[in-house]
Design brief:
The protein has 146 residues and is mainly alpha-helical. The protein has 5 helices and 2 strands. The protein is elongated and about 80 Å long. The relative contact order is 0.11. It holds the Pfam family HNH_5. InterPro entries: HNH_5 (IPR029471), HNH_nuc (IPR003615). This is HNH nuclease domain-containing protein.
Length: 146
């Protein structure tokens, strides 16, 4: 009788793992389609300037380790990988935030929400103005012939 209980438990576990894997696979496919459908125009140079401007994790301030690209507005909520939506995040913050709304997540983690939002607005404005200046200097002047 005890052997039957063990076999039944193993089957239940195997079924749970199989269901979980298929759910993960479906979620990964949905995410891949969402990312491909959105306009994601973040270049490596832009990412480097974002990391330099934040000088570490945008949420907790950690400066060591590799920073990951985190969308302030999650892709599952309509966000995109663009200059005005991406911030550097340490692995722990990025995994913890998942696809949560950023201000609610900051409150739950007891991080300084106001500091993040003020820095986000200031850095985003600086980066966007730098992008506009670069576009103006690179674009040929109107009416000039090559």
């Amino acid at each position: 009788m005890r052997q039957r209980a063990l076999v039944a438990r193993e089957r239940t576990y195997a079924h749970a793992v199989a269901v979980n894997n298929s759910r993960r696979a479906r979620a990964a496919r949905r995410r891949k389609r969402r990312v491909a459908a959105a306009v994601n125009d973040l270049t490596d140079a832009q990412w480097a300037s974002i990391k330099a401007a934040w000088e570490g994790c945008a949420y907790c301030g950690k400066t060591t380790g590799t920073m990951q690209r985190d969308c302030v507005m999650a892709i599952s909520r309509g966000g995109r990988y663009t200059v005005d939506n991406v911030v550097p995040a340490c692995g722990a913050c990025n995994a913890s935030k998942c696809n949560d709304e950023v201000t609610g997540w900051l409150r739950r983690k007891r991080y300084d929400e106001r500091l993040f939002l003020e820095r986000y607005v200031r850095i985003r404005a600086e980066l966007m103005s730098a992008e506009r200046e670069t576009a103006l200097t690179v674009a040929p002047e109107a009416g000039s012939l090559p």
